[in-house]
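It would be a great kindness if you could assist me with a short task in structural biology. A protein sequence and the structure tokens that stand for its backbone fold form the material at issue. I should value your view on which stretches of the chain appear to form regular backbone elements. The record follows directly beneath this note.
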Amino acid sequence: MTQEPPPVPSGRVGYLLARAGGRAIRNLNRALEPYGLRSRHYTVLSASAEHGGLSQRELGLVLGADPSAVVTLVDDLQRKGLVRRDPHPEDRRTRLVVVTEEGARTLAETRKLAHGVDDELLADLGPAERRTLEELLLRLR
């Protein structure tokens, strides 16, 4: 006997997005646990590597995150030796968040885990559907 899924609440798009996002975050947090990281750390580390040397304020803008939350996450990553804060070449009051060699190694390992979490979440979608979903989500920013 197959169990029917529970009914979806009305106004369901937000609910379904939140449910899928929550599942992705929980699964990624579990995968990152051996590294002492959470999904928020992974996102900051990844953005720092991709954009190379952003200020904490700029990281907050890129990630759509509160600047005070970014400071805490960067502090955590710096304590682990995964990022460092370098002086800005033109503004001595600003520090740039730069990924260390250890951070780059950790990112390479954890990126594989993140892709695996995505693959699991999207297992029922074909390649074209995955591309379409990503394109649509990018439009919702």
